[in-house]
Design a protein that fits this description.
two-stranded antiparallel sheet, about 280 residues, MetI-like fold, about 0% strand
Amino acid sequence: MRYQMLASKLIIHLIVGAGALLMLLPLYWMVVSAFKPLPEIMTVPVTFIPVNATLENFKGLLTETFFARSMLNSTAIALANVVLQVFFCSLAGFAFAKYRFPGREVLFTLVLGTVMIPQYVTLIPNYIVMGRIGWLDTWAPLIIPGIANAFGIFWMRQYIATVPDELLDAARIDGAGEFGTYWRIVVPIIKPGLVTLALFIFSTSWNEFLLPLVYLRSKELYTVQLTMANIFRVQYKFNYHWAMASAILATLPMGILFATLQKQFISGLTLGGLKG
């Protein structure tokens, strides 16, 4: 019986390991191809280790395209989204969690109901509105409409609801205003939730493709996703070497952020699950 259990565990581990290798293969191919010259990438049979490893792909990408500029653009847009959404969503979550006012539950239900509306349904009306107020070909449509989104408000409400009311009452007795209570008492307690929400927002903004494609026209304003799409195909030429190099550089910010904040991120997810 014991040997049967060991054999079954071994088979399961082998299957899981094989699946993991299959999932990592495209990532490995991307990294390897980024250091190959274009002729070697197109060579058949393929080589899984670069024969003529080079950094020219990265040099050409950064000097002959708008990729470096687009990285800065995406970083600026993502950071603006993080700061504004975390601030306003946490404020709204604080109001829904700790204040009693007429229509609170109805309003919160309506806010959550917006999650059910597909993005594509509102795309054309939003495009018309942005055109009439002069925001086309600017970053404003990528930042302003999502300042207080339903997911962020719900996430923050679940966290803030568990903050003891006694702490807030004590702060008010000591003379703290409502914003002071939020800033000095609530924010330090919900920091794991804020970090988790910030990572979600940064990741979503960084990987967004559809909205920049619709609203942006000038290459100087392009995000990294739009620039990567343009780099991959220029007229009838496929720049596989630049595409692979750009894919690596585009994944670095998210990798660095997760490696730096992974403890807070995991803690936020865990506590969020318990508090939900």
